[in-house]
Amino acid sequence: MNFNLIEIYQHMGFFARCIAYTLILFALASLIVFFERLIFFFRTKSADRKFASRAGKLLESQQHEQFVTEAATAKASSLAKLLGGGVKTYLVKKAAPQGKLGAVELTRRDMDRLYERVTADVRRGMSVLASVGSVAPFVGLLGTVVGIIESFAGIAKTGSGGLGAVSGGISEALVVTALGLLVAIPAVLMFNLLSTRADALLLSLDLARKEFMDHLEDVHGASASLSVRGEGAVALDVERAARKEGVDVRPA
What we know:
Layout: H1 5-11, H2 14-60, H3 64-73, H4 78-95, H5 103-122, H6 126-158, H7 163-244
């Protein structure tokens, strides 16, 4: 029997064809996820650069309301989703403080949750590639085992033996294993490539999140210091005015 895929396919049994169709669906799913993620990383990288160039100036000038508006317009930027949500939480908690935790601490905790959601969004679909890369060889092996079983079952029915009697069925079964490997190997390579890109993106987001929290702590601390100095200056002016009037304002 010549190695002709069309001829081999025509001689395949029902179960072997089902295995082949399953592996083809695995391959299509892997390609769809791979190209969708590549487009996502390309768009996110470009959007992050544009947003960072504008957002840095807004943070330096402490235009937090404008920062939130700018982040809302950058739909494709993962950095905008992360930092925009953090600034929004900070403004809300600062305007209406509740409980014992300060605005900065609440913002830090909310950004941890935002980072987890962004991480899930960045790695969306990659589990499909991991599953295909690990399962496809076994699916192909299952088709091979079933094909060999059918070959030997045919020998048992006809009573004829020899290598020629089973070589055709075995070759058809081994094609399914080869198909499983052809699907699994690219899936593993695509998963590793996307994982590298995802790790690089998440590392940059994590660094940006830490720098942003340092900025909030610095701004919030400076505001608190100014507030304390303002209250002290007011108290000192009151005491000086009372002394001029001859009133003792010291506590009894």
